[in-house]
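Lecture 7, part 2: worked example. A protein chain together with protoporphyrin IX containing FE.
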Amino acid sequence: MGRVTTSFYESIGGLETIRRIVDVFYEGVADDDLLRPLYPEQDLGPAAERLTLFLAQYWGGPTTYSEQRGHPRLRIRHAPFAVTPSARDRWLKHFRAGLDAAELTPEQDQQFWAYATHAAQFLVNSPE
Ligand code: HEM
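Predicted complex, written out as structure tokens:
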């Protein structure tokens, strides 16, 4: 009788759910006058794919992100961009819309949101 553990990734509905969150998030970024200029590429699709795979891996899903990109090193990867407190707030506003669209249970939502707010704070690297 093996004990079966379910990852947070699986319990929220796997890649489909994470894609939904990230798609809605990037719709917000695409229309954001503060955030959009920070993204180096014309096409936000590849950035959306990287965030999707990163979040899938973070929550216990497949490790495709690190197979393709190596160790996340998110502070270092964000160093080229001025992540100010207002950029953080915008980022979180769009992430909140993504989470709302995913309609997680209140407990799941709280867990995902707590992570997003902490991670966003950790990535602030510039004053206003
Ligand atoms: C707080 C405000 C934030 C800003 C302004 C910001 C901005 C950016 C920008 C401009 C990029 C480069 C886009 C690209 O890959 O082409 C990027 C990449 C990325 N960001 Fe953020 N970000 C923020 C917060 C976060 C947070 C909280 C997370 C994780 C929860 C995150 C995860 C990622 C990941 C995984 C990548 C791709 C890294 C790679 O593999 O190259 N970011 N971000």
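The mean pLDDT is 96. The chain is about 65% helix and 0% strand. Keep this in mind for problem set question 3.
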